[in-house]
Protein: Dynamin GTPase effector domain-containing protein
Organism: Laticauda laticaudata
Amino acid sequence: LVQNAFLELAIQHFSSFYALCRSAQGKIEELKSAQEEKAENMILTQFKLENIVYCQDTIYSEDFRTVRATKISPDETDSAEECSVAQMLYHVAAYFKVSSILYMFRDFAEMLQNAMLLFLQSGDQLEDLFHEEKDVVNIRNSLKERIERLHKAQKLLKKF
C-alpha cells in the first residue's frame, strides 16, 4: 500500500525525467526492502522475548489472583460507563488502524525524502537525471512562445 502510493507519486511527478523517475523508484524499492528486513528482525526479537521465562511471574500471578478474588458488586458498575467503555473500544480500534497506516506513510515519506536529498546532493549525474525528452522540450518551448504572444496581445489590447 505504502510502496504503491509512493511509486505512483514518483511516476506522476517525475514522468518527464525518465532517469530521475527510475532513480526514485529504485530508492523506494531500497527503502521497502530495508523496512521489511527491519520488521522481520523486530518480529524475531519479539518471539525471542516471549520465550524468556520471567522470574517475577509468581509475583504477578499472586497479585492477579488477589484482584480477581475481589468481587465487584453489580451496583458499583453503571450501564452508562459500560456503554462508554464499549464505545471507547471501537474508537481505539479505529484509531490504531488509521494511525498505524498514517505512521507508515509519514515514516516512509521522511526516509524517502532524506534518501532523495542525499542522492541529489551527490551531484554526480544531475544533468542526466534532469534530461528531458525532446518532445517535452518542444512542448514546453511552444507553450512559452504562446504565453509571450498572449502577453503581447494583452498589452496591445490595453493600449487599444
The chain has a mean pLDDT of 78. The radius of gyration is 30 Å. Helices lie at 2-14, 18-51, 57-69, 79-122, 126-129, 134-159. The chain has six helices and no strands.
